[in-house]
Design goal:
The relative contact order is 0.14. This protein has two helices and 28 strands. The chain is mainly β. It is globular, with a radius of gyration of 21 Å. Keywords: Signal.
């Protein structure tokens, strides 16, 4: 089939609005205190595996791995796979991801760790040798880190780490910063990497890319403590290598940020959440203007009044948001859906576009999963068995489970 015929076939098979997909429950994996779920391609596996980070105030910490993920939607059950331990030696692990090939001479992972006092003291960025099962701290200890991004910042041919961090510093208040860790480029993971501050303010999540196609690095940061959304960008000035602009000073406690063409107009948009205990808890989209330095970034509220149903101090909503297609064949043909980890809402929310118009930012909210007792952590979204239908793996922290859903036909 030539490309023209294939395109016509896809158009005829795909609606302008991908709103007619139904989810099916596949079961749950038993993983204590499951909080962060992701997918990784390990060297010894033909397809991607699931990784799960878990933590609790009872000092129960773990990073787990589920191989043969393809079997869950293929057989319509979670009973065909096993949960194995990667490590139980990292205190308060958040995001765990494989180190890109070539950075170390063996398979290793980066683990961003830490939480609020009294759990921040052992927080940091760890390189974990998967052969020796040994973690090595490569950053200054005592900070809360959520994630890392790999980028060759100094153009020496070696990938460096970008991360954001926060520290409760007593009378000094909260210290926050975006920084990069310089790769020593000697295949050693046992020595600290040199730290370079980029900008004070960012503290939790961030997105790295080139938003305006100027071949310079752009970093969008959600500032949790300063309650704003900011843009950090590379300049051509050696004395001031980074610029800084506040995009939205009324975001609330900033949490999640990612980038995707949400309205299918050919331009990248920002998908952002705050993390609030009241009904200002929301999901937003921002359009990137043609001149991001001087123009306003148009803001659209996609979902608001998210109720935090989980009782207790520090409970808030939502968590992460991610754009996806229930069927990957429609990726370039229809607007994406949006998955929202509710966190304190105790729900997994779906936002489904109600119009194919690029000027319409209205969505229908659907509840994919609801718990009566558990916060909902960061999910993994993937076509597990390459049948073009998407699966979502949802961690329910207090239940100690990862729930699996598919948009394909349940076997």
């Amino acid at each position: 089939m030539n490309k023209k015929i294939l395109t016509i076939a896809l158009l005829s098979a795909s609606p302008l609005l991908a709103s007619d997909y139904t989810s099916h429950y596949l079961g749950a994996l038993d993983i204590p205190f499951a909080a962060f779920v992701d997918t990784q391609k390990f060297y010894d596996q033909p397809t991607k595996s699931l990784t799960v980070s878990s933590f609790s105030i009872t000092n129960a910490f773990g990073i787990y791995r589920v191989d043969n993920l393809w079997a869950i939607p293929t057989f319509g059950t979670t009973d065909m796979v096993e949960v194995n331990v990667i490590s139980e030696n990292i205190h308060w692990p958040n995001e765990a991801q494989l180190v890109p090939a070539g950075v170390t001479p063996f398979q290793s992972m980066t683990i961003a760790s830490g939480f609020f006092p009294p759990y921040q003291e052992q927080g940091g960025i760890y390189l974990f040798n998967m052969e020796t099962q040994m973690p090595h701290l490569i950053s200054e200890a005592g900070w809360l880190h959520h994630s890392v991004h790999w980028e060759d910042i100094n153009h020496d041919g070696a990938l460096d780490i970008i991360t954001a961090r926060a520290k409760i510093a007593g009378p000094a208040g909260v210290l926050t910063e975006l920084l990069w860790l310089e790769n020593p480029n000697n295949n050693s993971i046992t020595q600290p990497w040199t730290e370079h501050t980029i900008q004070a303010g960012p503290d939790v999540n961030f997105y790295v890319g080139d938003l305006n196609n100027d071949n310079a690095l752009d970093i969008i940061a959600t500032e949790f403590f300063a309650q704003r959304l900011t843009w950090i960008y590379e300049t051509n000035d050696a004395n001031t290598p980074w610029g800084y602009r506040v995009i939205d000073a009324e975001l609330g406690a900033g949490f999640s940020v990612s980038a995707s063409d949400l309205n299918l107009d050919g331009n990248i948009d920002l998908l952002v959440t705050n993390h609030q205990s009241d009904l200002s808890a929301s999901v937003f989209a921002y359009e990137v203007p043609s001149n991001p330095l001087t123009e306003i970034w148009p803001k659209h509220t996609l979902l608001t009044n998210i109720e935090t149903r989980k009782p207790g101090d520090r409970q808030a909503s939502p968590g992460e948001a991610e754009a996806f297609h229930p069927n990957t064949l429609t990726t370039f043909l229809t607007k994406p859906w949006i998955y929202v980890s509710g966190d304190g809402s105790m729900r997994a929310h779906l936002l489904v576009p109600t119009s194919s118009s690029s000027n319409n930012w209205d969505y229908e909210e659907r509840i994919l999963h609801e718990s009566t007792e558990s916060v909902i952590g960061t999910a993994a979204i993937i076509d597990s068995n390459l049948d073009t239908f998407t699966e979502i793996y949802i961690p329910a922290y207090d239940e100690g489970k990862v729930h699996a859903y598919t948009f394909g036909v349940k076997k």
